[in-house]
Amino acid sequence: MMEKTTEIEMNAATPGAKPLLSKRSIWQRPHDEFAFFLTMPRAMRVLLATNLIYAFVLPVIEIFVGAYVMRSSNDPSIVALYQLTVYTGIPITFLLNGFLLSRMKITTLYSFGMLLSGLSMLMMMRLESLSVIGVGVAGILMGCSFGFFWANRDYLALSTTNDSNRNYYYGLETFFYTITFIIVPLGVGAFLAKADDGTWFSGNVNTAYQVVTVFVFILTIISSIVVHQQKFKNPEQKKFLYFRFHSLWNKMLVLAGLKGLAQGYLVTAPAILIMTLVGNEGSLGTVQAISGVVTAIMLYLLGRVTKPKHRIYILTIGLIIFLIGTLANGILFSAVGVIAFVLCKVLFQPLHDIAYFPIQMRVIDVVAKIEGRNEFAYIFNHEFGLYIGRFLGLGLFIVLATFVSQTFALKYSLIVIALLQIASIPLAKHIIRKSNELSK
User: Fold this and answer.
1) For 226-245, how does the pLDDT look when each residue is reduced to its tens digit (9 = 90+)?
2) CATH label of the domain that carries residue 201
């Protein structure tokens, strides 16, 4: 495992500069922010650079692939089925990745996951018709790409950071993702809209989607090259399959299940709602961009100045914002309601992530030391907690859309999910307190 940063390194400033942790320097001396970034370990910086490039790929995969399936099938249930097969492929690949880590370099597996996402998009765009089988196979392949990407990315994030700099790491990483979720949907949405109105490609939107896919594949190649600029170490222990865990980890799995419950909807619902109530993919990009810049700046500042003790407050604010958005969508159920929901989603998701991931990593630090196990064992097991939540969430949507109505599912299931998320607050508070007690 890679050597972690010390507290002194974390708080180091450049010689002769004013203290980098002051709020004043963030606003008045932005060049100091780059100097502060350079005080981080090189491995952490290379990982962030890799994730920055790949951050331009994720919005296309998460937003426009769902919109492409919706456009081609005109069936929200097919979109949900696609997402369910994606989520099914992820834990399967986590398992395969665990075995491969004893034989292959972690950077090879990581870059393979990024490249595979581009290949799975190419396969999707080449399907003549979106049958259930075709969508299922494409979804499994995309899930495999996510599995290789997230399994290795999570381990590398854990091994190159410590609890004192994880707020900064995830704040900066989430800042990247938030900015790209503004730029990419705007650009790709406008590009697809031009094809849709006949300006480009003779009105053939599928051709435009194929061009976007080629661009995505090029980005995955570049990010794969960048990650190989650092020699990351594989987990030292090879065993990663366990069935009994410390009680603290079992509570973390419940928190993971609650997170997964919302994840499926956050990938699937916005595309369906916007295509149904707002308009085309151009609207998709415009709506995502409305509050994104403010959110991105806020996330960087939170990651820069907050401490581990503030995570529960960030999580609580994010969950309340999500509940407000789902209520606006359910009550109004119109273009205005959808815009309100997506604005709240843009705020909620990164706030939730910047609090959740450091909590998860902290628990892994603690229980891995207590039980003397490979950290990847917990990353692997955590994915199954997420999967159960995703499966239940998407299953609820499919059941309601099939046996009640699509409108009912889009209006009310999100509210149910948001109310269940509120249970995360007392649970997360307990997990944080217990982690601190056990680490002493």
Assistant:
1) 999 999 999 988 889 999 99
2) 1.20.1250.20
Q: Pick the closest to residue 168 from 26, 289, 28, 55 (CA basis).
A: 26
Q: Per-residue b/e over 146-184, b at no fewer than 16 CB within 10 Å?
A: bbbbbbbbbbbbbbbbbbbbbbbbbbbbbbbbbbbbbbb
392 in any annotated domain:
yes
| Count of the separate structural domains present in the chain | 1
C-beta separation of 319 from 348 below 8 A: yes
Question: What's the first-to-final CA gap in the chain, in angstroms?
Answer: 22
149-163 pLDDT, tens digit each: 999 999 999 999 999
Residue 131 lies in domain: 40-229+242-439
Tell me how far apart the alpha carbons of residues 399 and 317 are, in angstroms, rounded to a whole number.
30
In a domain, 198, yes or no: yes
Whether residue 22 lies inside any domain: the answer is no
**Alpha carbons 350 and 345: distance in angstroms, whole number:** 9
Among the listed residues 365, 196, 411, 372, the one whose alpha carbon sits nearest the alpha carbon of residue 284? 196
